[in-house]
Amino acid sequence: MTSATLARRQSHLTKGKLPSYAVWLVLGAALVFGAAAASLVGFSAVSWGLFSALFFLLAATAVTAVVEGGRKATDSLATYLVYGAFIVALLPLLSVLWTVLERGLPGLSYDFLFTSLNGVTGAVDNASVANGTPVLGGAYHAVVGTLQITLWATAISVPIGLLAAVYLVEYGTGGPLTRAITFFVDVMTGIPSIVAGLFAAALFGLLFGPGTRTGFVAAVALSVLMIPVVVRSTEEMLKIVPNELREAAYALGVRKWRTITKVVIPTAISGIASGVTLAIARVIGETAPILVTAGFASAINWNVFSGWMSTLPTLIYYQILTPTSPTNTDPSTQRAWAAALLLILMVMLLNLAARLIARMFAPKTSR
Amino acid sequence: MSTTTLTETRGAGQSGDKIFSGATLAAGCLILAVLFSVAMFLLVQALPVAGADPAEITGGEGFSTYIFPIVIGTVVAAAIALLIATPLGIGVALFISHYAPRRLAQSFGYVIDLLAAIPSVVYGAWGYAVLAPELAKGYAWLAENLGWIPIFEGPASQTGRTMLTAGIVLAVMVLPIITSLSREIFLQTPNLHEEAALAMGATRWEMIRMAVLPFARPGIISAAMLGLGRALGETMAVALVLSGGALTASLIASGNQTIAAEIALNFPEAFGLRLSELIAAGLVLFVITLAVNMVARWIITRHKEFSGAN
Question: What span, in angstroms and rounded, lies between the C-alpha atoms of B89 and A270?
Answer without folding.
Answer: 31
